[in-house]
């Protein structure tokens, strides 16, 4: 009978081979980022604040002048105030960019004469009305108007000037779309406020 060799320590039989942790790339960091896209554009326009606010709060007309907005409809209003004025509280928008078209519901918050804010996304209670099809985790669009002094370059008759701010904050459900959108957000916001300026000229130049 052959002699048995020395027993090998169990520790050597079950030697642990550490695995190398996967390296994270810059692209991975972008996909995991929760940081929203935020943009702001400002214009000073030679028209009274109240008239500009009336155009901004007219959500039903957005599809007539805002780029990428194919459809806009207010679906809920406040009760009439002391001046018998109602303000939108909820609306449906359909937007499209290239081959992509999407409809979603927004909660609307109005501070009469000052601001109009639309809030949408899956973080919002109104998201359930979209049937889970809202592409945004968060989408906040805020228009603000305030009285402004006339620019030094302004000449001619004395008139009222208004500062208009457009602020947008967004986070998309799809991280790839978030990356793509980040490259065109500034351009999109600029086009929106330029379209608003044209709307102002078309509606108010003749005193309508």
TrEMBL record:
GO terms for molecular function: ubiquinone binding. Pfam families: Polyketide_cyc. Coiled coil: none annotated. GO terms for biological process: cellular respiration. It comes from the Eukaryota. GO terms for cellular component: mitochondrion. Residues 45-197 form the Coenzyme Q-binding protein COQ10 START domain. CDD domains: COQ10p_like. SUPFAM superfamilies: Bet v1-like. Belongs to the COQ10 family. Required for the function of coenzyme Q in the respiratory chain. May serve as a chaperone or may be involved in the transport of Q6 from its site of synthesis to the catalytic sites of the respiratory complexes. Interacts with coenzyme Q. This is Coenzyme Q-binding protein coq10, mitochondrial. It comes from Gnomoniopsis smithogilvyi.
